[in-house]
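Hi support team,

I submitted a single chain yesterday and got back a structure, but I'm not sure I'm reading the token output correctly. Could someone confirm the output below corresponds to the sequence I sent? I've pasted both exactly as they appear in my results page.

Thanks,
R.
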Amino acid sequence: MINFDVKIDIDKGKLKSKEEQAAKLSQFQLDEAVLKDSNDYIPADKWNLRDSSLLHSKVGKGKIVWQTKYARRLYYNPQYNFSKDKNPKAQGLWFEAAKAQNKKHWIDIVKEVYKKVFDGR
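Hi R., thanks for writing in. Yes, this is the structure output for that exact sequence:
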């Protein structure tokens, strides 16, 4: 099992209603983007690895999980010769690959949610 906590650090004790709403919504949208973008790089045979992430992740809670018997082995061995038949981007360290490619977009998602909440859209 591979576990990543993707959280927005906010002191919830000092948040106002709009801030709490923005934090919850941005966490949910950030988690969805991280999960989708990371799954773009997973090794695929029957898509069990991807399916495990959809089943075991806690979207909106900052918890992204790939839970198969082989997830950890595949993730931490990027030197493996991954089949590109079903996923041409397949590789180990798929979260790191997604983060390298999408980090700015992920930050923009959070900023956009806050902007929408505070602008009343």
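A quick pointer for reading it: Residues 2-6+24-119 form one domain. Let us know if anything else looks off.

Best,
Support desk
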